[in-house]
Amino acid sequence: MNEVGANKFGRVVLYIFLTLSALISIFPFYWMFVIGSNTNSEVNNMPPALIPGEFFIDNATKVFDRINFFGSLLNSFIISTAITFFVLFFCSLAGFAFAKIQFKGKNFFFIFLLATMMVPPQLGLIPSFMIISALDWVDKLQAVIVPGMVSAFGVFFMRQYVATSIPNDLMEAAKIDGCGNFRIYWNIVVPSIKPAFATLGIIQYMQSWNDFLWPLVVLKDASSHTIQIALRTLNDAYTTDYPMILAGTFMATIPILIVFLIFNRQFISGITEGAVKS
């Protein structure tokens, strides 16, 4: 009975801890909605408003009047989706090559790839912009999509996952049956690393959606702005309408939450895969 009681007490403590952690995680999103549904004067009161107000639609209307919200949202969706698709394809392909294919200089190239992760991306800002300008891609979405089509972290992540999840015996059996490297990748590797696709996909999608610096440099025209750049233009020179800004930010966060909820199960499976392997 004591052991049963101790187990029940431990489970209760665990559930309380998880509930509190969930509430703490959700609170910033709730607070964003509270500010976005009140007026500027109510937000500046002490103590500030703690419950949602009645002005969210009014503040959202201000956002729609000030910026091309849905156009910017569409640009962000196109950029994030395209970058995520190409990153998943190229990084999984490169990760498979580094993990399972023997070729000359493999270790050198892999170390060189990892070394690029230590270089701050800001150092490549000027030469990258010069290349984009020479290609006449300024104010075009491919100026953001093409440089982000491959990720060094993505290659490393996929290489580690493929190395631990694809048995060498399965590779040898496929080669005996006459499969080439790409067919092994497409028919054996891809179906086996779906949790890794979901994990890297969510990480990459969120990173692309929230990217600000590079799109700010190459997307100058308002029609090509991503949602992050469009939200920045809501700031006035002398006054700041926090409810309007937070209403726009709240609406811009919803697509990220939807993507996470869709791939939540695969994401959790991906990050816990190594913990349940024997």
Topology:
Layout: H1 2-36, H2 40-43, H3 56-66, H4 69-100, H5 106-116, H6 125-134, H7 142-145, H8 152-165, H9 168-176, H10 181-192, H11 194-210, H12 213-218, H13 227-232, H14 242-262, H15 264-276
Summarize this structure as a short list of keywords or feature phrases.
disordered C terminus; 15 helices; MetI-like fold; 278 residues; flat; mainly alpha
Uncertain parts: 274-278
> What's the count of strands?
0
CATH homology superfamily name of the domain at 68-233: MetI-like
What is the overall number of helices? 15
Range of helix content: over 70%
Assembly level: single chain
Can you walk me through this structure?
- The protein has 15 helices and no strands.
- The protein is an all-alpha fold and about 280 residues long.
- The chain has a domain of about 170 residues: Orthogonal Bundle (MetI-like fold).
- Helix 1 packs across helix 14, helix 4 packs across helix 11 and helix 11 crosses helix 15.
- The C terminus is likely disordered.
